[in-house]
Amino acid sequence: MTQKGDRVAMANSVEARYPFLDEDVIAFAARIHPRFKLHGLKGDKYLLRRAAERILPAEVAWRPKGMFRAPLAESFLANPPPFVRDLVSFDSLARTGYFDAAAVQADCELLEKAESAGLGTFTKLGLGGVVATQLWHHLYLGGGLCDLPTATRTTGAQVEPPTESLAVA
User: Fold this and answer.
1) Buried b (16+ CB within 10 A) or exposed e, 24-50
2) pLDDT tens digits, residue range 27-40?
């Protein structure tokens, strides 16, 4: 979300969080007096936080805002389940052709050896994109990459993978 959604949306004052796009929520918020919307200099989301403290611990409801970050590669590649291991195998990466299979393998080996300090944050986030893309390909473009079911295609043309690999490392 940081790269594709939240950052772009917020930089342009666009609300992209779907619960807050509900017409009833917007109509209700428009009727709220401004003094309740911002409560002091650091009282952002005052009413939302007041409502949240009814069901959440106070330390959660009133904690400072934090940046959303997709999980880093260690969370799913340090000790991966078999289907993830299959998705990032050299054969699967070569079959789809989206990524430089050797570079991805080298990065995955660093993670397996617990040497992830040698990988930058951007690379760790990128490996998440590799897994997601491989899984998407498996589910919607023919399967055969891992031992998970695939989606049933009812319409649409067959999509061919790119002819050139995208380097990840």
Assistant:
1) eeeeeeeeeeeeeeeeeeeeeeeeebe
2) 988 898 887 777 77
